[in-house]
Amino acid sequence: MTCKMCQQRGQTWQGSAPNCYFDEPLYENWNCATVNAIMDICGGYPDEARKGVVKLHIEDVTLCLIDITERELEYNEDSFIPCLYVQWYKRRGATERLLLLGEETNREPTEEYLLAIIDYYKEAK
Question: To the nearest whole number, what is the mean pLDDT of the chain?
Answer without folding.
Answer: 83
